[in-house]
Write a structure and sequence with these properties.
By secondary structure, the chain is of the alpha+beta class. It has helices at about 15-30, 35-45, 50-55, 65-75, 75-85; strands spanning about 100, 110, 120-125, 130-135, 145-150, 155-160, 160-165, 170, 180, 190-195.
């Protein structure tokens, strides 16, 4: 079954197995580079206190924070999540694809590609109405990326360039810059993000 961070009526995050594996993975990535909490904090722009909470599994990282941390490690967000998931495989059955939900925006992110994929990664995103997510330039400097909208309208900003993407539109990202995904509509926007290493 897919792994999904769910919410109860009070919208409290339920920490699950993927959260714990993420905590271990982030701690491992930092340790493999012999970085202190202070060094990772300086490189990522995330506070030492927050990194410590994430590594101990006491806080569910938001999509923005994961983007900052993966950028500091020099890997894609998809790679970071894939390394936290199950053993490598060449096929990802729909019923087995891991689902992660941003505790802040409720963005639902499904890892479509098999966990063994290391060159191209496909991610299915569902951004709820009225929600917005920002990622720093560091999350894009070593990848090429395309966004393909399946349903709804996505307002995407990369640096000074603003794009309105509707169902069927596909955008190739340009020079790495701070990026923002925004859904200004009343319905959930569903889109694919295809990521390839530069």
């Amino acid at each position: 079954m897919p792994i999904l961070i769910s919410y109860n009526r009070r919208m409290t995050t339920i920490v699950n197995a993927l959260d714990l594996r993420l905590a271990q993975r982030i701690r491992h990535e930092r340790g493999s580079r012999a970085w202190s909490l202070a060094e990772l904090s300086e490189r990522s722009g995330v506070s030492k206190a927050m990194i410590s909470k994430i590594e101990r599994g006491e806080s569910s990282p938001t999509a923005t924070l994961l983007g900052q941390l993966s950028g500091a490690f020099g890997i894609t967000l998809s790679t970071l999540l894939a390394r936290a998931e199950a053993a490598a495989s060449r096929i990802a059955r729909a019923s087995e694809q891991d689902v992660w939900q941003d505790p802040e925006t409720r963005l639902r992110r499904t890892s479509v590609s098999p966990s063994g994929a290391d060159v191209i990664n496909i991610v299915r995103c569902e951004l709820p109405a009225g929600r917005r997510i920002a990622y720093p330039t560091s999350a894009y400097v070593f990848i090429r990326q395309q966004i393909y909208v399946l349903r709804g309208t996505l307002h995407f900003t990369e640096g000074a360039d603003a794009h309105t993407l509707r169902a069927g539109d596909c955008l190739q990202l340009g020079t790495p810059a701070d990026c923002t995904f925004e859904n200004r509509e009343r319905k959930t926007c569903i889109y694919l993000v295809v990521v390839a290493r530069r």
